[in-house]
Design goal:
Blueprint (H helix, E strand, L loop, with lengths): L6 E9 L5 E9 L2 H6 L10 E4 L14 E6 L5 E7 L13 E6 L2 H5 L7 E5 L2
Parallel strand pairs: 2-3
Antiparallel strand pairs: 1-2, 1-7, 3-6, 4-5, 4-6
Length: 123
Amino acid sequence: MGQWRNGNGTLTVGDREGGPGLEIPLRIAASYRARSKGLLGQDGIDGALMITPCGSVHTFGMRFTIDVAYLDRKFNVVAVHTMKPGRLGMVRLRSRHVLESAAGTMEKWGLRPGVQLQIDQAE
């Protein structure tokens, strides 16, 4: 998908033993305003937030610890990190999108470097 817009969608993590992949509710932040706000001012998140385009994030002003996954343009996971509030993430030159979720959830979902994701935006 070439043109992203703010809204909702579905994040699908691989297929599990030949079955359908794990589907996770997704919010998409594509405008400057939505990307700047991200998860600031929230106490948690159900599912994940995709910030696009994005190569780096920070957690200044965050109220909770988050997991961050950096994705390349084909939605391959480049890196996954847990960030406490008040931190500045490294710039990932290959990253085109960033996923954010509550701490510990990405490990449960099986997100690690090299995993291929599918992202579908709701119409």
